[in-house]
Amino acid sequence: MTKWGSYYWIVLHTQAMCYPTQPTTVEMERMVRFLDDFMELLPCTLCVNDMRAYMASHPPNLGSHIEFELWVHDCHNHVNLKIGKPILTLEAARHRLLLRLRPMRPSRSRQVWYMVLMLLMVIIAAFICLKTMV
Questions:
Q1: What is the pLDDT of residues 6-16, one digit of tens each?
Q2: Cβ distance 68 to 31 under 8 Å?
Q3: Number of folded domains in the chain?
Q4: pLDDT of residue 102
Q5: Do the Cβ atoms of 78 and 54 come closer than 8 Å?
Q6: Does residue 134 share a domain with residue 72?
Q7: Which H/E stretch holds residue 118?
């Protein structure tokens, strides 16, 4: 498994989490096109073929937000099972995704550096304002 796999799943899970509760026909058609196109972008021919087979035997359920989220979750567990990774509950998968999506808090030294930069910017802005007033 290469590094791209986790990013692929982040995109799919995020799409599922943001999918409408009651999608229109147009939204469902767009998602089918997105899934087809996104699948073709996988940098692994074996993975593309496996996803094609999975989607043929388990068509995406796009009737609602929760149905699509469950489909993505089941698809991810299908792949995890094939590559020897643990199977996750939907709740555990959601928790993992939200942890990965939250903004990373900068280190203490970086926070100090940001404060110094902000202070410097304020001093420069004040200097420019004073200079233009005179």
A1: 788 888 998 99
A2: yes
A3: 2
A4: 76
A5: yes
A6: no
A7: helix 108-133
Burial class of residue 59, CB neighbours in 10 A (0-12, 13-18, 19+): exposed
Residues 20 and 74 in one domain: yes
Task: Give the closest residue to 17 by CA, choosing from 60, 70, 59, 76.
Answer: 70
CA–CA separation, 124 and 132 (whole Å):
12
Based on the fold, state whether residues 124 and 61 are members of the same structural domain: no
Residue 23 Cα distances to 16, 100, 103, angstroms? 12, 26, 29
Residue 70 belongs to domain spanning = 4-101
124-133: long-range pairs with CB below 8 Å, 24+: none
pLDDT score for 55: 94
Looking at the structure, do residues 97 and 65 belong to the same domain, yes or no?
Answer: yes
**Contact predicate 102/42, CB 8 Å:** no
**CATH code: domain of residue 39:** 1.20.120.310
